[in-house]
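Narrative of activities, Objective 1.

The group set out to show that a structural description can be obtained from nothing but a protein's sequence at a throughput compatible with the screening campaign. Below is one input-output pair from the validation batch, recorded exactly as produced.
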Amino acid sequence: MSDVVGLALRDGQVDVVALRERLGTRRLVTAFSVPADEDAAGAIRRQLLEAGVRARRAQVGLPRRAVVAKAVELPAVPGADLRRMVGFELERHLPFPPAEALFDFEALASEAGRPLRVLLVAVERRSQERIRGLLRDAGLAPRLVGVAIHSLARLVTGDPAHGRIVLWLEAADAELAVVVHGRVVGSRAFPVPADPEARGRTLETELGRTLAALPESDRSEVVEIVAGGLPPPAFEVERLPMRVGIDAPPGFAAIESASLPALAVALERAGRKTPIANLLPDELRPRPFPWPLAATAALALLALGIGAAIPAVTFVKERRALATLDAGIARLAPEVQRAERLAAEVERARRELTTLRGFEEQGLHPLPVLRELTDTVPGDAWLTNLSVDRSGLELGGFANAASQLIPLLETSPGLERVEFTSPVTKGRDREQFRLRATWERRGGGR
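Output recorded for this entry:
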């Protein structure tokens, strides 16, 4: 939301209009007039505060008689600096020294191969000091200083393919501007008498002079006269139809007709596609937004952002990949445990197989040995360990009478020299023994 104040300077008074823009739509906040005296700035400030206007931007429309405005032809030089070229022409067109001038221009339509046409608008620099003081004391900062009748002429709606003369009539003087295809190509200010008949003749004469001074290409485009301000007397200029009354734009129908010039000034856009003359000094003009610099800065920030985001994105991707792997591992953990158990069983079977193959390589047959021990050892004895190798075997275990084992084992056809390898120890009801025996036939196919 932003507010803008438009001021139109007239004889003895200042017309003020405040607009508020929100979401691209402008609406009227307040409109009033104050006397152009020493307290004008204070009166403007007080009424804006009472209306709740928070604007600090102001657009000012000067009376036509306070400025110099005329169409100027320039050489058609491709790529030339038009502002500098206009500056060279100032001395020929201004009634005061160019060094004391504030000037600007508006480019006019021109044909290829013909001189360039611009509308020169200039004002004496010192005359603007009072306006800047008025705005400063009212708490406003100027954004645009133009010509009120030019803004009003651009505000008038009509056939965009043609042109018109816009006339603003007051008690003692009149202002007019000629608009062709939406561009002001000329303007004038002149006094008018109070007598209606004399006023009509004066208007007819001055409008006729205005049309006669226009180039034929512009004069042929003018199709009507639009009059605002005080009602004009009856007159006729080259049989052009006259439309009395200037309609306010849509949304501003409630505004009084006397405030239309100030409204037109407030509605002007300094950054419009077709630039308009702005009589502010260079140091006070609003600077256009530096889009190339902003685009470069945005690209640099984007590059920095991408550079900073790469490690973060990589980290996030790695974390997601790690989480996916963890989930896969957790899902496969039971299968892995089963595989590990099977591998342990296979390893145990492999070791047993290796042991049995070792027996075979030593010429031993474990199964016959175990069968003989089973047949020989009495039922009241049991073995806790058995060790077999090429030289013999060792037994350990418990029996009711360990001494009886020796003769029993010696009766075995495959064993001899059976003896205890450690003393027999007695427990509660059993004797613990450990004995050793050698093979009676070492190459005997066991």
